[in-house]
Design brief:
The structure holds six protein chains of six kinds.
Chain B (H helix, E strand, L loop, with lengths): L9 H22 L3 H21 L3 H26 L13 H24 L14 H9 L3 H24 L5
Helix pairs in contact in B: 1-2, 2-3
Chain D lengths: L5 H10 L35 E2 L2 H4 L3 E4 L5 H10 L3 E10 L4 E9 L6 E9 L4 E3 L8 H12 L2 E3 L33
Parallel strand pairs in D: 2-5, 6-7
Antiparallel strand pairs in D: 1-2, 3-4, 4-5
Chain E lengths: L3 H35 L15 H11 L10 H21 L14 H22 L3 H32 L4 H6 L19 H15 L11 H4 L9 H26 L12 H20 L7 H29 L1
Classes of the chains: A alpha+beta, B mainly alpha, C mainly alpha, D alpha/beta, E mainly alpha, F alpha+beta.
Chain lengths: 373, 176, 108, 186, 329, 151
């Protein structure tokens, strides 16, 4: 039987377009079921779960500290902050005081990790918009960060560097100098990125006024991170629920009130700048001393619920642990930023054109394992 | 002079190729069930027709034929198809019933017979002395001097048709 | 008729034109959709042009006239297609009465 | 120090007084921890009243426990206060035969976090959905529903979110036994 | 009327076909190498010296692959589409004057013929998208049609500007009229139209759009439409489209060189015409590649806005301006 | 009108700026390393799969205490040992690492009382068959390395 190309699916003459699970714009295995009317998205349904690994269950069936390698694999692009939230929750529960040197190193590595994560986003976003070269430039700089972190932790993505009560190892030789060099080199590169992309008329036309997600929508969906800051609200866990040594550091929370893709873009670009500032301050203040507190061999947090949130690259990452005083967690809940950030896509994409929808999806900065866990 | 100087066999072969393309494309356009294939047939026929024009000493018209028919007419029709035609042709969609088709065939054959007979047996005048060679320059000059009425009329028709098309198409916009 | 000189025979072109006309006519009667009829109409236009050019090539004293008229016909057919397209769109929209404003709003 | 605004705390105290909920004795066939030494411990503490908590100690500023039917009212109150949804999740307490549902809310400007809990019986897990108040709760509830088998009544789209469509079982329940995947065994 | 003439033409066509094939293959190499350099990486290096045999290997791979027609596709049109794409591109090469002597047919309507042949391109891509029964293909087909409709208008207006200067449709005629030093090139014909560089930029933009090159590669926008109209094509079906795309780029650049950069005429003197023509041609190709690896893709309505709101008014203005200037001067 | 003009000119300027940047990059040296021909030095702390350290005799210092087995989050280590005649401690006879499950977290290395296991620096671990990673035999690996050293 011969069939004709377009199958009309109903009286509205819409058709269903499967964006994914393998599609260049979904950055992984995410499926978006779009109901299209021509090039306009009438309806979007997210089908997630292709890389679901049940991390929460894994947290419930092994000793507390053995869950650490998992945390870096939830969002592989900002593994440091995720591990930080988990060890932070246990430290909060057990009342462990982390040595200051460890805290400063945590902040330095987290911020380096944030820059590397944003660089991946920046390149991939431009790739979504059809420009391939920025991706390679971004990876050039990201490689430098990864080299630093690899020398420090031994891995390039899933660092597993933090331990409950401190760090796995002290800084290696050359890390401080290497980081200083990187900060020095990266500032002009950021400027170059701005001139290459941010001011480019084609890029501006693609993202300005596209994908407006206002503060109210973010509130209703629990979207955090650059999403809410791009909607003009200076909400940042580093300031709102201060952790580690962030209260002592001088940095700004970039906001942009336009709430479109461009403002999220600007916020992230500015965040990289602020991260550089944080890193510089931490390097200046880096104290000497141990990097590991005294921690019992077998961790037994007291009974109760404990939350610990960190500002991951994509927004608020929160770990809620429920302890019954045993060496194994009763419940580990991972509240990931992309989950909330993506859940509003269905509503926000309605009525957009396909290319704009992709421009918006890129501006959400998705990491699929972060949604699926 | 023949603009396509060639040896004895190649020329008629190419001519037959183009003639075949014209007639084959036309037949294909008429007989196929899918409207999109019909457009392909029209395109083929246009290419064949362009070849005919080339053989009729007018490469200019040949190129214009391709430019307009492939580049504009076919594209526009495809546009219309994409916008408005149903996707799945049902049985007999777009065609009349069988007796009607038979009637159409009879009419077509009759017309062909009559017109072809007229063309072949017609009492054509002997070729007169050429006053020009039909080059592009001459066409241009003619369009602006002796034949300027035709140019004006075409211009007017195109203007009116564009305005009319806009008017008709825009009118639909407001009907929700 | 010499087969090698077939492209020099006016009758060949005239017969071809007649065939094209007949096919176009057949399609015009046979189809009952607007677009299908439009395509057949274009074939008839083609027949007319071929005829004009054949006569122009072989019998006319001033070949520019034929050119001008073929161009005239082409202009007509282009205009016709434009009109037909707009009518198709209008009919379609009235008939479906959906997605009217979206498709032509290219403002962003 | 708790950063919870006083008026919110008072509202909560007055609207949702301490939940009168008896913790039933563990059923005979309940699946608890494997080693018997811990089974005697009271696993689920009795519900505390609505209280302010210290953020630096536990990570939230207000810990409120409400009756299951009050959860919508609590969410509406928090919505009116301008809170954003943070997460919805459940905790399985098989010994008490209860699910504890935890709703976390955060405030973007006031930097306050509120944790609202409720407890529902394990054998009849039903609770009203919040997705009409917070559309963001939609996904969280779908996730909770598929992992715990809790029914969110009135949920607009109660299908699996992360698990495969044909998955049977509720993986985050304590008594879930995973089926070995024959393809993955070496 | 000698027997040698059609044979010469046939040889030229064969040569053009070979040139198209090799050119496409090596433009892919140039593109990949160029992209590598723009992105500060090496590009292909493994097959042959500096990866020079890479295109041959790719071609071999493509040719040995199975031609797959997806179920439900319109088989005939699906196979016809790549065939429709290629011959017009080769034919166009027969018209291009590479030098005074190296020209297949010196048509006196060469310019129109080039555009006539390039109009096949649109319908072939459209058919490919339509017939493959792929939704991305359909969207791509719709895009390619409206994109080309939008861009042919400013392009034609620009060309009319040039035609008024040259007074002929013949490509060799247009080139000859630019003989002498480089200030005779139409790009610098500021005396007859002070906005000539702007006209050239408009032409270049339209040319990018006609050939579906970034930043106007709406039809195969890989991050939106996977590969657009070519999504379902495998093996040489895709290979033919690929070759034709690159052939079209070369043709587009050749037109730019002929119309604006003085064709085979040397700006300084010595070398034979072919050398200069190819030099200019490949410089233009390099610019096209350079543009592709610099910019993100435009949005679809952005492209239409650019065409209708900016390029068409400017090109009408330059057209009128040069009409007035020619009359006055 | 003025705005449009400004936008067109400004936009065009921004495009030329971008092209200038890419052209500058065009003439700079590539930053990539041509992997199979040249390779980077792995840093000191690089984490690849486990290997045994050896004492001066080339024997492993592992005492088969099973601490690493207990510490492993993914249960990917199997250790067997026996107590040889005349020795105080057990010595290892079998140390299998299931590399398909190993997450390279380093818990085993941290707990090892005799520092018998360390991370290797092997990074080009590609194979055509997943079976090859199910068991990485550390004892055999040590033997082979000893043999190589002897040669």
């Amino acid at each position: 039987m011969e069939l004709h190309p377009v199958q009309s699916t109903g009286p509205q003459e819409t058709f269903v377009l499967n964006l994914g699970p393998q599609h260049p714009a979904t950055h992984g295995v995410l499926r978006v079921k779009l109901t299209m009317d021509g090039e306009f998205i009438k309806d979007a349904v997210i089908v997630a779960g292709y890389v679901h690994r049940e991390h929460e269950k894994m947290g419930e069936n092994r000793p507390w500290d053995q869950f650490l390698p998992n945390t870096g694999r939830i969002d592989y692009l900002s593994a440091m902050m995720y591990t930080h939230a988990y060890v932070g929750a246990i430290e909060r529960a057990c009342g462990i005081e982390v040595p200051p040197r460890a805290e400063y190193v945590r902040v330095i590595t987290s911020e380096l990790n944030r820059i590397s994560s944003h660089l991946v986003w920046w390149g991939a976003y431009l790739l979504d918009l059809g420009g391939m070269t920025p991706l390679l430039y971004a990876f050039d700089d990201r490689e430098k960060i990864l080299d630093l972190l690899e020398a420090l932790t031994g891995a390039r993505l899933t660092y597993c560097y933090y331990r409950v009560g401190g760090l796995a190892e002290d800084l290696n030789e050359g890390f401080v100098e290497g980081t200083r060099d990187f900060v020095k080199e990266f500032r002009p590169r950021l400027k170059m990125f701005r001139r290459l992309v941010s001011e480019n008329i084609i890029f501006r036309k693609r993202v300005e006024g596209i994908g407006i997600i206002d503060a109210e929508m973010c509130r209703k969906y629990g979207a955090t991170g650059p999403m809410i800051r791009g909607a003009g609200i200076p909400y940042d866990v580093r300031r709102a629920e201060p952790y580690s040594v962030y209260p002592e550091l001088d940095f700004e929370i970039p906001v942009d009130p336009a709430a479109d893709s461009m403002s999220r873009y600007k916020v992230r670009m500015e965040e990289m700048e602020q991260s550089l500032r944080i890193i510089e301050q931490c390097l200046d203040r880096l104290p000497d001393g141990p990097v590991m507190a005294k921690v019992p061999r077998v961790l037994k947090p007291p009974e109760g619920d404990f939350c610990y949130a960190t500002e991951a690259a994509r927004g608020r990452f929160e770990v809620r642990i429920v302890s019954t005083g045993k060496p194994i967690a009763h419940r580990v809940r991972l509240r990931t930023p992309c989950f909330g950030n993506l859940s509003l896509f269905e509503e926000a994409a309605r009525g957009m054109m396909l290319a704009d929808g992709i421009a918006m999806m890129g501006s959400l900065d998705l990491v699929i394992p972060d949604i699926d866990r | 002079m023949n603009p396509f100087p060639a040896s004895e066999y190649i020329i008629p072969l190419i001519f037959l190729l183009f003639a075949g393309a014209t007639i084959g494309g036309a037949l294909f356009a008429v007989f196929t069930k899918w409207i999109i294939r019909s457009v392909c047939g029209l395109a083929t026929a246009s290419v064949g027709l362009a070849g005919m024009f080339y053989f009729l000493h007018s490469p200019f018209l040949a190129m214009i034929q391709i430019l307009i028919y492939i580049g504009a007419v076919c594209i526009t029709i495809v546009f219309a198809i994409m916008l408005a035609e149903p996707d799945e042709p049902q049985d007999g969609y777009g065609l009349h019933s069988v007796p009607w088709n038979v009637g159409a065939g009879i009419v077509a054959v009759a017309v062909f017979w009559g017109v072809a007979r007229l063309g072949v047996t017609g009492d054509w005048p002997t070729p007169a002395v050429r006053v020009s060679d039909g080059s592009v320059e001459m066409i241009g000059v003619a369009l602006l001097t002796t034949q300027s009425l035709a140019l004006e009329i075409v211009a007017l028709i195109l203007l009116v048709s564009i305005l009319g098309a806009l008017a008709v198409a825009r009118k639909g916009r407001h009907i929700e | 008729m010499n087969l090698l000189e077939i492209h020099q025979e006016p009758a060949v072109y005239l017969v071809l034109a007649a065939m094209l006309l007949a096919i176009g006519l057949f399609g015009f009667i046979r189809r009952n959709t607007l677009v299908g009829m439009l395509i057949s109409g274009e074939l008839i236009f083609g027949a007319a042009m071929l005829n004009l050019m054949a006569v122009n090539r072989f019998y006319a004293p001033d070949p520019t006239v034929g050119h001008v008229f073929v161009l005239f016909v082409m202009g007509l057919s282009a205009a016709e297609v434009a009109i037909a397209l707009s009518i198709v769109i209008a009919v379609y929209r009235n008939y479906r009465s959906i997605r009217t404003s979206e498709i032509s709003e290219m403002e962003g | 120090m708790s950063r919870c605004p006083d008026h919110l705390f008072e509202r909560f105290q007055e609207l949702f007084p301490a939940m009168e909920m008896d913790t039933p004795a563990p059923p005979e066939d309940s699946v608890g921890n494997e080693d018997g030494a811990d089974a005697a411990e009271p696993r689920l503490p009795p519900p505390p009243p609505c209280r302010k908590t210290e953020h630096a100690k536990v990570g939230y500023d207000l810990d409120a426990i409400v009756e299951p039917h009050q959860i919508e009212a609590a969410a509406k109150l928090l919505d009116a206060e301008g809170f954003a949804i943070d997460m919805v999740t459940a905790v399985d307490w098989p010994d008490a035969a209860q699910f504890e549902l935890v709703y976390d809310f955060m405030h973007f400007q006031a930097a306050t976090r509120v944790c609202v809990r409720t407890r529902i019986p394990r054998d009849r897990p039903e609770i009203a959905t919040l997705s009409h108040i917070y559309p963001g709760a939609n996904w969280h509830e779908r996730e909770t529903a598929e992992f715990y088998g809790i029914q969110f009544t009135g949920h607009p789209n109660p299908i699996h979110l992360l698990l495969p469509e044909d998955f049977v079982g509720y993986p985050l329940r304590k008594d879930f036994k995973p089926q070995p995947d024959p393809l993955l065994e070496p | 009327m000698t027997a040698a003439e059609p044979i010469r033409l046939l040889l030229f066509l064969v040569g053009a076909a070979t040139f198209v094939g090799l050119n496409a293959a090596y433009l892919v190499w140039v593109e990949r190498k160029g992209a590598g350099r723009f992105q500060r990486r090496a590009g292909p290096t493994e097959v042959g010296y500096a990866g020079l045999l890479q295109p041959i290997a790719d071609a071999g791979k493509l040719m040995s692959k199975q031609l797959i027609v997806p179920p439900g596709a319109d088989r005939m049109l699906f196979r016809l589409a790549p065939v429709m794409m290629m011959p017009p591109a080769i034919m166009a090469f027969a018209i291009l004057p590479f030098s005074e002597y190296l020209v297949g047919i010196d048509l006196n309507v060469g310019l129109i013929a080039l555009f006539a042949f390039s109009s096949f391109n649109v319908i072939a891509v459209m058919l490919a998208g339509w017939s493959s029964r792929n939704k991305y293909g359909i969207i791509s087909a719709a895009r390619v049609v409206s994109q080309n409709v939008a861009y042919e208008i400013p392009m034609m207006l620009v060309i009319i500007t040039i035609l008024m200067l040259a007074g002929t449709l013949s490509l060799t005629g247009i080139v000859d009229q630019q003989a002498g030093a480089f200030w005779n090139w139409n790009l610098f014909a500021l005396a007859s139209n002070p906005l000539m560089p702007v006209t050239f930029i408009i032409f270049f933009v339209c040319m990018l759009s006609e050939t579906n090159r970034a930043p106007f590669d709406m039809a195969e926008a890989e991050s939106e439409l996977v590969a657009g109209a070519y999504t379902e094509y495998a093996g040489m079906g895709f290979g033919v489209f690929f070759m034709a795309e690159y052939a079209n780029i070369v043709i587009g650049c050749a037109i730019a060189v002929i119309l604006f950069l003085g064709g085979w005429h040397s700006p300084v003197g010595v070398f034979p015409g072919v050398f200069w023509f190819l030099l200019k041609l490949y410089f233009m190709v390099f610019v096209v590649i350079w543009v592709r690896w610099t910019f993100p893709r435009t949005q679809f309505y952005g492209l239409l806005n650019l065409s209708w709101k900016i390029l068409i008014p400017i090109s009408i203005f330059t057209l009128l301006l040069s009409a007035v200037m020619i009359k006055l001067v | 009108m003025k705005n449009i003009f400004k936008e067109v000119v400004g936009g065009f300027y921004s495009l030329t700026v971008g092209m200038g940047i890419t052209l500058r990059e065009f003439f700079r040296k590539p930053v990539t390393v041509h992997y199979p021909r040249e390779s980077l030095k792995m840093p000191e702390r690089y984490r690849s799969h486990l290997i045994f350290t050896s004492d001066e005799n080339g024997a492993s210092t592992c005492i088969a205490c099973n601490l690493c087995v207990k510490a492993c989050p993914t249960d990917c280590i199997i250790v067997e040992g026996e107590k040889k005649e005349g020795e105080k401690r057990k010595s290892v006879t079998k140390y299998d690492l299931d590399f398909t499950r190993c997450s390279l977290c380093g818990a085993c290395v941290e707990v090892c009382p005799t520092d018998a296991i360390v991370f290797s620096k092997r990074y080009n671990l590609a194979a055509t068959d997943r079976q090859q990673f199910h068991i990485i035999d550390l004892c055999k690996d040590l033997e082979e390395r000893n043999k190589k050293k002897a040669r």
